[in-house]
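dumping this here before i forget
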Amino acid sequence: MYELKPFDSLHVGDEVSVSKTITEADGALYIAATGDFGPVHVDDSYAETTRFGRRLAPGIMVAGICTNVLTAELAGTLGVSIEDRFWFTGPVFYGDTIAFRVWIHEMNAETRTVTWQASACNEEGKEVLKAEATLKFPRVKPKVEPAT
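structure:
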């Protein structure tokens, strides 16, 4: 968890899967931190009038959990995100258990970038999130031997 993994330790096809139940507490903390008080997230009466029929967990919060799986379980913390794309393909409700699958799709040694992809599915196996993003890794500094 949260390791310093150098670029050369990663490989195309490396993959991890993690499941998490999305709780009311998760949503409350995210909403308080971001100010995302959209009524579909916080107002039962409003949410009942939408096509979803009940409150949704914030999509970008779910995407954030996906990026945490990437850094905590797969690619480590040396790479920095330079591009992120998310597709919200289905609703996530409080109480849903989401299975996140994250894998390394491409690597470019010249630019020291890693492109990763992800898919997240609910308990019924319906995909609720797709992602593709790029991490940039630092160049390794050559070690200089002290003069003797």
